[in-house]
Structures
1.
Amino acid sequence: MRIAQLAPLAESVPPHLYGGTELVVSLLTEGLVERGHEVTLFASGDSVTQAELVSVTKCGLREQISEPIRRWQAYDQRLLIELERRKNQFDIIHNHMGYQALPFLRHFDCKIVSTNHNPIKKYCADIYLHSRNLPFVAISNAYKQLNYPDELNYVATIYNGINTNLYPIYTDTTREYLLFLGRLCEDKGTLAAIEIAQSLGIYLKIAGKVDEADHRYFEEQIKPRIGTNNVQYVGEVNFDQKLDLYSKAIALLAPVNFDEPFGLVLVEALATGTPILALDRGAIKEIVTDKETGIIGKTKEDLILRYQEISRISKHTCREHAIKNFSHSNMISQYEALYKKLCL
Amino acid sequence: MRIAQLAPLAESVPPHLYGGTELVVSLLTEGLVERGHEVTLFASGDSVTQAELVSVTKCGLREQISEPIRRWQAYDQRLLIELERRKNQFDIIHNHMGYQALPFLRHFDCKIVSTNHNPIKKYCADIYLHSRNLPFVAISNAYKQLNYPDELNYVATIYNGINTNLYPIYTDTTREYLLFLGRLCEDKGTLAAIEIAQSLGIYLKIAGKVDEADHRYFEEQIKPRIGTNNVQYVGEVNFDQKLDLYSKAIALLAPVNFDEPFGLVLVEALATGTPILALDRGAIKEIVTDKETGIIGKTKEDLILRYQEISRISKHTCREHAIKNFSHSNMISQYEALYKKLCL
C-alpha cells in the first residue's frame, strides 16, 4: 500500500530523548517499509527513516528554541500543505499530529485515520467533535472510554508497541531497589512512589525529567525527600541508562494519579522482566495483569500490604506478556489490517 | 450585504490598548453596521460591537496569560470552525486573521477577501503562496511591492483609516517638543530620533511600549540617553495621553529603519495638525507629502538640515490630508465597493 504517516513536529522521528508519539510513529513507519509498503513520512527534517521523508523544518520544534512558539502553527500548516499537495499519491493517510491536522484532513477526499495519542482536553474538544466523522484509533480501551466514546468514530483500539528485541530480559542480576521512571509530577505519582518505598523500607531510584510546569511540585514535594531516607534521583536518562536501571529493579512503581491512557514505560519494564506495582487508573489493567505481571491496588496501602506477592511473579511471564501484547510487530500488523479494512 | 469579519484573537476588538489590526477591524465593522449591512464579527469574547459577535474565548489571548501560547492554534481553529458552520449565511467573509486562516478559507465555497495587515515573513510565506488564488488587499502600495506582488492575487490597495473626529486639531497650543510615538525598537528608529533631536537641540518626548524582544535594545541604546540631554521617556500612554502629547508636539519623528507597510501613528499625528519628519522607507511617501505635511529625508542628516522647513507647514493642511485620505469613512466606502465588486 501507499501510506502517508503524519508525525507531530515537536520532536524528530524517532525522538532524540523524549517523545512517546514520535517513537511509535518511527516503529510503525520502519515496520511498514520492511513489509514492502511504500511509505512517506511527514516529520521534522532530522528524522531518520527508510521511508521517503517530507519536511518543512530542520529539526524538531522543541529544539529550535530561537523559534517563537507562536510560529509552530505555521510549521504545522506548512507540513499539512505538503501533505495536501501529494494526497492523491496515497491509499491512506495516518495522522498522529493531533487536533492540529483535523480541520485540514476533513477536506481531503481520500482515506484517513487518526491515532489519538493524547487525552482530549477541553480547549481542543470542539475540534475533535467537529471531525467526528473521521475514523479514530484509541491507544487503549480506557482511552476510548475517557474520550468521547459516543461522539467520536472510533474504528479500533490498537495498543502502542515497543521493539522488544531491544529490551533484554534480566534474570541474573540482583534486584536491589524499586524504580520510578517517567516525568516527575503529581499525575505520575512521584510522591506516592516515595511514600510506598519508605513505608516498605526499600531503596528507591527515581529517573526522569522535571517539566517547567512541575517545577514547584518538584521543589516542594520531591526535593526535600531525596538524597536521604534511601531515595535517589538520578536525573534524566538515555536508553542504555534506562536498561541498566531496569536490570536491577525489583519492581517498577506506577502509583499514577490520573487516568493514564497508556504507559510505554510499563511495557518496557515488563519486557525486561520487571514486574509492576501500580494503582488501578486508566489503562493500567489493560497492560498489567494482577498477580501475573504485577500488583494492582486501589490505594497506596493496598500496594504496601501486598508487596510481598511480587516475589511470586515470574520475570519470564512478564516478558512473554509484553512480547505477546505489546510488540511493535503486533502493532504494525494491526495497523496494516486496519488500513486494508478502511480502503475496502 | 451579509458580511463576516474575522479578527485576530490576540486582542479584543477594539483593543484595550495596543492592536492596530483590531482597531481597524472595529472601525470597519461598526461603520458597516451603521450603513445598514448585516455584520457578524468573529473575535474575542470581550469585544464590543453593534454587530453579532461570535467568539470562542473570554478575552484576547494576550490577556489570558495562564493559557500556553501553544494552545492559541486551537482557539484560531475553533473560531474558524464557527465561521465554517455559518459560512452560507454570508455574502462575503473578510479575513484579518492572517496566514492562520488561509488553509481553511481555501476550502470554503463562498466569497472571501483577506487584508494583509503584517509583512509576510519567510516562515509563513509558503502558506500565503499556497493560497495565491484567494483575493488579497494590500494596506499600501509599498506593502504590495514588498510582499510577493507577482505571486499573490492583490485585488485592491486600501489604506487603513482612523476616526478623525476623535482627533481634534490643535492650533492654539504651544508646540514645545519633538515626539516619538510607538514601539521602542530598532525598526522604528528610536535611537535615530534621539540623535536627531539632540543634534537640533530640541526637547524630545518618547512614548510607547518596550516589547520583550526589544528589551536589550532599550537597555543598551535608549535607557542611557533618557532623563538627561532633554530626552524624556513617558512610558506607555492611553488615548487621552496620546492626544495631549500630540497637542504640544512641533513634529512627529519617524526615522524608521525598515519598510513599514503603513503607520497609523503618522495618520493620527496629521489629524491633530502635527507635521512629520520621516525617513523615506516603505509606505512613508504614501502617507506624508514632502513639504506639505512633513519633511521626508533619505538620511538623518537630511532631516536635521531641512528641519526649519517644518515651520512653513500648515497644521490645517496636515489635518485635511488625513481626513481626505485616511478617514475611516473613506476606508469603509472602499471596502464596501470591493465587497460588491467581488460578489458580482
Note: Residues 42 and 340 of chain B are 21 Å apart (CA to CA).
2.
Amino acid sequence: MSTAENPVRAALAAFVAERDWARFHTPENLAKSIAIEAGELLECFQWNADAEAERVCDELADVLTYAYLLADRLGRTPEELVLTKLELTRAKYPVERARGRSEKHDRLPE
Amino acid sequence: MSTAENPVRAALAAFVAERDWARFHTPENLAKSIAIEAGELLECFQWNADAEAERVCDELADVLTYAYLLADRLGRTPEELVLTKLELTRAKYPVERARGRSEKHDRLPE
Amino acid sequence: MSTAENPVRAALAAFVAERDWARFHTPENLAKSIAIEAGELLECFQWNADAEAERVCDELADVLTYAYLLADRLGRTPEELVLTKLELTRAKYPVERARGRSEKHDRLPE
Amino acid sequence: MSTAENPVRAALAAFVAERDWARFHTPENLAKSIAIEAGELLECFQWNADAEAERVCDELADVLTYAYLLADRLGRTPEELVLTKLELTRAKYPVERARGRSEKHDRLPE
C-alpha cells in the first residue's frame, strides 16, 4: 500500500504538510530523531525492568512516527522494509541452530 | 487490525515463535534493542548527511522490527500508537503557531 | 588542566592532527558519534545483564574518546564539565530526600 | 591515578555514597544511562548543526558522569581506557592511509 492509500501514513503526511515541516525532515535529521526518541523510550527502563505501560506506549509512538516518516522519505513502506529484512534474518538464523538462543548469528553453534 | 490479521506482524510472530525467542523479548530488552539499532541507523550518517539508501533501509528495518515486537508485547498495534500520539501532537503544535518552525512546543511564539 | 597539559587529551589531539581529522569533528558529528558508540556499548547488555568486561571496556573507551574530543571542541575539560554538573545535581537531589531512591528529582517525596 | 587520588572521581564517588545509589549503578543500568544521556546530547542538534554551547556542555557532562561511574565499576580509569583504545585505533588507521578520510578502516584505500 502506498502512503496515499494507508490511513496512518496519510494522516502523518497531512500533519507534516500543514505545518510545512518536510523541510526539516531530511533522512539525517529523521535518523537523529529516531535515536533521540529511542533514548526516551529506554529511559522508561533506566533503573528497572518494569515501566508504566502508558509511558512506554507514548515513547514508542514517537520512535514509530519518525521511522514511518523516514520510510516515506526513502519511498518505501514500513511493511516492505520489515518483510525484506525478515527474509535475510531468516537465512542467518535457521530454526535448528537459533532455537532458544540469543547469540549473534556468527556465534551460534554449528 | 490485530496481529493475527496483519500479514507483517503475523510473519514476525511466526518467526519469533519458531525460534522460541519470545523469552528474550521482554519490554526492557526490546527497548534496548531499538536504541541499539537506532545507533546503527545513525551510523549511516556519522560523518555526513548523505548515506547509501540500501544501508539506511536495512538499519531502519531493524528499528521497525523491534518496534513492532514491542508494540505487540504491549498489546497495541503500531497504527493505533502512531494515531493516538498524532492527536496529542496536533494539540501541542497548532498549525498557525508551528508552521515552518522547528522549535519545541514550549518555545514556539504565541 | 588544559589539553596541552593533560597527557591523554594531548595524545588524542596529536592522533587527530596527524590524520587531519579535525575537519570531521564538528560538535554535531561528535554528538552523533557518542550516540552511535553508546549504542554499541548497550549492545553488550542487549539480552542479559552480564557482559564480557573486555568488550564493555572497549566500547566505553569509544564513548569516552568522542566525549573528550567534544569537550575539547567546546574549550572545556571533562573534569570541569563533570564537577560543574555535579554541583547542580547535588542541589536537585538533597541527601535527605534522595537517599536510596532512583526517582527523578521532580518525583521524589518531599 | 586511582579513584581515591583523582579529585573528580572522588567527588563522584562521595556523591553516590551519600545517596546510597551504588545499588542502582549496575554496569547494565549505567550503559542504559549513557545511551539515554547521549540521546539528550544529540537532541541539541536534532534539527540543525548549531546548538547552544551551554546546553551541549550540560548534556555532555551527563554522558561523562555515567561513563566515569561505569569505568569505576569496571575497576578502570577513563584515562587508561582511552589510551589503551587509542593504541588499537592507531594500528587500524595508519596515518598514510587514513589522512583526511572518514571511511571505516575496512573501506580505506590500500
Note: Chain C is about 65% helix and 0% strand.
3.
Amino acid sequence: MSVVLTRVHELAEIKEELAARDWFMGTSGNLAIKVQDSPLQFLVTASGKDKRKKTKEDFLLVDGEGNPVGATHLRPSAETLLHCEIYKRSKAGCSLHVHTVANNVISELYGDAGKIVFQGQELIKAFDRWEEDAELQIPIIYNYAHIPTLASTLGDFVKEDKGAVLIRNHGITVWGKDGFEAKKILEACEFLFQYQLALIQAKAGLLASTGALNN
Amino acid sequence: MSVVLTRVHELAEIKEELAARDWFMGTSGNLAIKVQDSPLQFLVTASGKDKRKKTKEDFLLVDGEGNPVGATHLRPSAETLLHCEIYKRSKAGCSLHVHTVANNVISELYGDAGKIVFQGQELIKAFDRWEEDAELQIPIIYNYAHIPTLASTLGDFVKEDKGAVLIRNHGITVWGKDGFEAKKILEACEFLFQYQLALIQAKAGLLASTGALNN
Amino acid sequence: MSVVLTRVHELAEIKEELAARDWFMGTSGNLAIKVQDSPLQFLVTASGKDKRKKTKEDFLLVDGEGNPVGATHLRPSAETLLHCEIYKRSKAGCSLHVHTVANNVISELYGDAGKIVFQGQELIKAFDRWEEDAELQIPIIYNYAHIPTLASTLGDFVKEDKGAVLIRNHGITVWGKDGFEAKKILEACEFLFQYQLALIQAKAGLLASTGALNN
Amino acid sequence: MSVVLTRVHELAEIKEELAARDWFMGTSGNLAIKVQDSPLQFLVTASGKDKRKKTKEDFLLVDGEGNPVGATHLRPSAETLLHCEIYKRSKAGCSLHVHTVANNVISELYGDAGKIVFQGQELIKAFDRWEEDAELQIPIIYNYAHIPTLASTLGDFVKEDKGAVLIRNHGITVWGKDGFEAKKILEACEFLFQYQLALIQAKAGLLASTGALNN
C-alpha cells in the first residue's frame, strides 16, 4: 500500500499547487499518476469535486480500462480514458489535464493549423530540447464530445515519454516520467502560451503606432 | 438552528474563496444561500462590510421580502431583492453576485445586443450542456438604479433552477441548486468571459500582422 | 497611547492587504492614518522599507509638517508632505498612495487631458454617487520631482473629505474618512482603471474584426 | 558559518517571495547571494529543483569559477557562470535571474534595438535615478546557448554595482548591493515592463477608435 500512499501524496501536492493558481475553474481539469505497470493501475481525480478543496476522496485507483480497482462510491473523472491512453502508449508516470484561459485561446487561435510551434524560447528546455535552434511543436486536436474517440485521437500524438497536446477549447493534457516532470512541462506550456498571446498583442500595438506615424 | 449554521459555514467558505480572488473590489458584491422554503428564509451578506474580512456579522437571515428575520442591527445588502426574485422563481438554493473586470467589460461590450452567446466551449458543461454543439446564452440587462425595477427585470430571466445574468456595468448574478453549483457556474462564466476578451484581442493582433504583411 | 496603537493596527492591516496584491513594487507606495486633529499628528510609513514585510518599524508618528514626533531613527516617507496636505485641507482620516500598472497607464493615457471621467459604472458608488447618470472625475496632475510643489499641486484637488488624484506615471493618492473608506475608494479606482484598459482593447479588437469583414 | 546561515536565510526569503509570484515557471530561474569576497564565495540555487518548494537542499556554496565549495551531491545551476561574472565585475552582493511573461515579451519586442529605454517613470527611482528627466536603459543581449559566451556577453554590461540585463527570450538578470536592492530592482523592472506592454496596447486601442471615428 505504501506506493499508493506516496503517489496520493505526490498528486495531492500537485493538485494543491494548480488549485492555488486557479487552474480548475468550474470544476474542470483532472489529474492522474501511475502506481504500477502490470497490470496497469493509476490514481485519478474523482468526478464532480471542487479541486480547490483537499479531502480524503480526491483520488481513486483505476485499472488500464479506467475502471475502479476495488469497491468505491467514487466515480473516476469522465475523461479517465485519456490518461489510460497515455500510460499505454508511453512510459509516462504522471499526466495532467487543465484548462487555463491562455491554453484555450491558443487552442482556438491555432486550431485550424492543427499545431503551435515555438522556437528560440528558453522555456523549451523544459522539454529537454537544448539546441539553440530547437523547435517545439504542440499538436491541437479536435474536441470530440465522445470520450473514447477523443482518447484515441490524443493517443496518436503520444509518441514520447513526455509531451503535451492541446484539445481545441478544451485545455491541455501533458505527461512526463513523474509528477515533477509533468508539472514542469505544464508550467512551461502555460508560460509559452501567455508569452505568445502577449507578444501578438504587443507587436500589433507597436505596428499600429508606427502605421499611424507613417500615414 | 443547525441548518442555519451549516448554511452560514457553506456561504462563509464561498465568501472566503471569492475574496481570495479579489472579486469584492470596493465592497461590491453580495451572496445569499437559502435556509428554508416555506416561508422562504435565506442568509444574505450584511451591507457595507469589507467582504475580505471574516467576522461574526457577515450574514443575516432575511425573509422572502428581504426583511431581517428577528432583531438585528445588521442591514441586508441593498440588492437583497435580486436574491428574493431568484428564490421565488426557481428552486435555486444559492445565488451569488460579484463584479469582476471581465464580467463588467463583457456586459458593456455586448450590452446593446442584450446577450452573449458561447458555443463549442468545454466549460459550457458547467451548465450541464453536454452536446458537442451546445450553445450557452447569458442575457445582459439594463442596470436600473431603482432596485425593485432591477430585481423584476432580472426575474424575467430566471427560467431555470440554475443560470446567470449579466447586469450592464454591474457584475453578474448566478444561481444554482446549492453553493457548489452556483460557484461552479460563476467560475465557468468568469473563465468564458476572460477567454472571450483574450480571444478578441489575439485575433485582432494576428489580423493586424497579416494585414501589414499583405500591404 | 491606545489611539495610536489602534491606528497602527488599522494601517498595518491595510498594508498587509495591499502587499498581498503586490501594490508596493520596487518599494513604492506610502500609507498614512490620522491619530489626532489639533495639533495634527498622523502615522506614516517609514522610508526605504520593503512593505511586503511586517515589522515593528513600519510606521512612525509625524506632525502637520511631516516631521517625526519624538525621537526616532526612522525617516518618514519622502512623500509625507502629500499626506500633510490632505489632512490640512479635508476631514480625511486616512490617505493611501500606491502604484499599480493600471493606475500608471491610465495616468499616462489621459495625462494630457488632465483627468479621466467615468459614468454609468456601478463601482462609482464607492464615492457615494448614487444617481443613475452619476459622473466621476479623477484629476491627473503633473509629477513634479520637487515634493513640496507636488504636494501643493495635489492640495488644489483636495476639495472633499474623500477623493482620488492620479499623479502622472506616479501612482494614485486616495483619501477617506477612515481606513475602510480610503481602501474602498482605492479598490474602486483600480477596478475602474483595469476596466477602462480592458474595454479599450476589447472594443478595438472587435472593430478590427468588423473592419476586416467589411473590406 | 553564521554568515552563510544568514545569507541562506536571506536568499530563502527572496526565493519564497518570487515563488509566490510564480516567477519560476517550468523550473526556470536561479538566484545567488555573496558570502565572502576573497576568495569569492557565493550561494546559488541547486540545479533541477522546483523552486516553489522549500528544502534544505535549495542552495549550495560555490567559488569564483562556479565550482562547489566542499563535498556535495548538489549541482549548481547551469547558469552559475552569469552570477560569477557579476560578482567579479562589481561590488554587488546579490544577483537574481527570473523569467516572467512580461520580461520575455519585452526582450523579444525590443531585442533588435538591443535595449529598452524608460523615461519619466517614477519607478526609475529604484535605480537611484532621481532627476525629473532621468533615463533608464536596460540592455538586451543575445541568448547564446553556450553559457560561458552568454556569461561574458552579460559581463560587458556589468558596469555598476546595481543593474539589470535582459537576455532575449531568456528572462532578466538583476543585481544590487544586497538582497533588498536586487529584489527592489527586479520588481521595478517587472513593473516597468508590464506598464510598457499595457501602454502600447491601450494607445493602439485608443488610436483604432479615433481612426474609426475619423473614417
Note: The mean pLDDT of chain B is 94.
